[in-house]
Design brief:
356 residues; alpha/beta; six-stranded mixed sheet; five-stranded mixed sheet; 11 strands; globular; disordered N terminus
């Protein structure tokens, strides 16, 4: 009822103003009338403006918890990295960042959820290399379009892949692997169809002209167990998953897919040093938000995240997890992500990788 009276009062004010200026020149009457109309229209429309439009660059944001969606189960590497970032932002920025796990659908369920959220800065997606590949693997079936329905906010970190074999294997180097792959049939395990280990295997075959028998498992752990048991010949493994086994001697590492050697395994060469610079692979993790999130807000979140990733304590924690810090603000992360989508699209098409 109060809103109705307010509108009536505004209308009456407009009538009174117009009547009082009846004897004024026509141009003055038009200016007076248009001014009153503008003020009335603004007063009427203001309550309907989206909240984020007013708060995007104001000090009021955030005035409620931020939902940081991790599309993987709790306890995984992406989940742990996200929680560390959330904690750091809480301490440094006084932001209440709450991690929510929405696993399933090859990480597409959580991503689709974020793509449909309000673009107000209160919903983030923890994304990885898997999403860059999913853009091709699940094209038209993922429930969202990675580069259209989401916007890059920041890249945080990345881990490499590691080529590992059983310590009893006669394959002791990448040169040995190439010779063996060209002379006999080798089996290569992975954590599943379309996963980063499988994609890296496909890239290796493309670069070397070899053909290995791919054996997909439901996760990295069972594939490594079978490798140690002698059921498969090698694995292009997620570095953090196989690091402890290599350090204990349960597996032998042939190379890492990073540009630099790992400080934890200084004697293991990079793929470039082994003669395959094209096999450099970064399993990155970053943050995205719903498309339409105001750019000033994206930039604000981006700068805050990158600032925390660059802190020595955070860098140290990431290394402990098997990551290397890879901080990129939105302006740099966007082109990088687009390049990764295009790179893996070609590899997936050339290898005819299918997901069921």
């Amino acid at each position: 009822m109060q809103k109705k009276n307010d509108v009536i009062d505004n209308d009456n004010s407009l009538i009174a103003t117009t009547a009082a200026s009846h004897d004024a020149p026509a141009s003055a009457r038009r200016r007076s009338t248009l001014g009153a109309l503008g003020a009335g229209a603004l007063a009427t429309l203001t309550p309907w403006l989206p909240a984020w439009a007013a708060d995007a660059s104001s000090s009021k944001w955030p005035d409620k918890p931020i939902n940081y969606v991790v599309p993987f189960p709790p306890g995984g590497l992406t989940d742990v990295a996200a929680r560390q970032a959330a904690k750091a932002l809480g301490m440094a920025e006084n932001w209440n960042v709450v991690v929510e796990n929405k696993p399933g659908g090859s990480a597409n369920i959580g991503a689709a959820y974020v793509s449909r959220a309000q673009p107000d800065g209160y919903t983030w997606l923890a994304m990885t290399l898997s999403h860059a590949a999913n853009a091709t693997l699940f094209q038209g079936k993922a429930g969202y379009d990675l580069l259209k329905d989401l916007v890059p906010v920041a890249c945080m970190a990345s881990s490499s892949m590691m080529v590992v074999v059983n310590p009893k294997s006669p394959i002791k180097s990448m040169a040995d692997l190439l010779q063996a792959a060209k002379s006999r049939s080798l089996s290569a395990g992975s954590s599943g169809n379309g996963t980063p280990p499988h994609l890296t295997l496909a890239l290796y075959q493309s670069l070397t002209g070899t053909k290995l028998l791919h054996v997909p498992y439901k996760g990295g752990a069972p594939s490594l167990t079978d490798l140690m048991g002698g059921q498969v010949d090698l694995i292009f493994s997620n570095y953090p998953e196989s690091l402890a086994y290599v350090k204990s001697g349960a597996l032998r590492a042939l190379a890492v897919s990073s540009k630099q050697r790992s400080p934890d395994l200084p004697d293991v060469p990079t793929v470039a040093e082994a003669g395959l610079p094209g096999l450099v692979v970064s399993n990155f993790t970053g943050v995205m938000a719903p498309a339409g999130t105001p750019q000033p807000l994206v930039d604000r979140i981006s700068k805050a995240i990158v600032k925390q990733i660059k802190q020595p304590e955070m860098t140290k924690n990431l290394v402990t997890l098997g990551f290397g810090a890879q901080p990129m603000e939105a302006a740099e992360f966007g082109p990088y992500l687009k390049g990764e989508v295009e790179r893996w699209a070609k590899i997936i098409h050339d290898a005819n990788i299918q997901v069921g």
